[in-house]
Input
Amino acid sequence: MRKLFDPILAGGNLKDRLWACLGALLGIGLTSVISATFVHPHGTFLLIAAPMGAAAVLVFAVPASPLAQPWPVIGGNIIAALVGVAVRILVPAPELAAPIAVGVAILMMSLTRSLHPPAGAVALTAVVGGPAVADAGFAFVLVPIALNAIILTACGILFHRFSGHSYPHRVPTVVPAPIEAALRAEDLDKALADLGETLDVSREDLDLLFGRVEYHAAHRRTQSVGGGPLGRAT
Output
């Protein structure tokens, strides 16, 4: 039963989860308050887009994730909103427009290095978001999507100055271990503790990855010693 409550992300701990709760509370709160000062030019004002809740999980709970960095949060949401609105206009049938919007949004985000999972919901919202979103047209891209994303990202940058995490994330400089060093499970746990970051990958996957790295390093050393291609090259 205890394993059910273990963190599912490598490096996660209770302290970081509490920081994430506080960060999301402040981030979504400030985003809502600041967005409320802007009047939507078309119909009922949409204060804050629901996908921003998912974006807050990334920004405040896994700030080291490539999917949580400022460009994916801002650029990904804006691109997805543009795609969603354009598809809704070009494809009148919602049952067709919805999958097309999400698929094209993923493609465009991938091409622009701005992949951000919550933005898939932004593209979907642009298609099935109801009369308020439909009446707004391309204004939906600016308010609330771009406005929300920019404010939330700014809150994340400010908040993580006090949380102990780098955001935008910067990989710390580390001293490489000798190639002969054998990796052990406790070494991985200590390395995760040294980084102090919640990584967007499971500990088991990291353990497997480093195990394969160790295997290939040992295989390369064996080839070098045995006079294989690498040995002849040296």
The chain has two domains: 2-163, 185-233. The chain has ten helices and no strands. Confidence is low (pLDDT under 50) at residues 230-234.
